[in-house]
Task: structure prediction
Amino acid sequence: MLSSRRLVPLSYVCICGFWPSDFLQVPLRSSFFRRVAPAVVERGAILNGFRTFCSSKDLSLEKCVPCKRKDLSPMTEGSANVLKPKVPEWELLNDSGVMKLCRKWKVKNFLLGLEFFKIVADLAESEGHHPDLHLVGWNNLTIEIWTHACGGLTENDFILAAKIDRLPFQSYLK
Ligand SMILES: C[C@H](O)[C@H](O)[C@H]1CNC2=NC(N)=NC(=O)C2=N1
Result:
């Protein structure tokens, strides 16, 4: 389904009801955009020209797209902050200029930590988009998500984070 979604160049935020029919193109620089930005993300929008969320409130229902575009560029901190409320458990990290999503868990034991990562790995493979996995001190897990192809954040990262949040990990945690 996603292949039908064209990637459009960044110049407007497109508010859509249903892809690709009823677009209202709003110049990013307009005061209208600044006022409606959060609502735009709620209703569905193109941020950084990569895709429209077609009014899905839940990013975990979206699919990651291949990061093959030569001109793929990371989203701005402003765009990241607009999407951040959709993955409230994650924090935005600026790692030497590379913006990433980061979340930590403490699991009951080492083997559950590896099982946790295996489940995340299977999800990542199915999405074709992969997190950085850290397991330290036997039971401290950290997952960092960013788009390596452009050295920053894209919608794929927020989608993967939202999908990870829906995995059934409660029984793994301390
Ligand atoms: C074509 C495919 O999208 C790329 O090989 C994927 C694989 N998984 C990936 N994962 C992440 N996090 N960033 C990437 O740039 C990336 N590229």
In short: The longest strand covers residues 98-106.
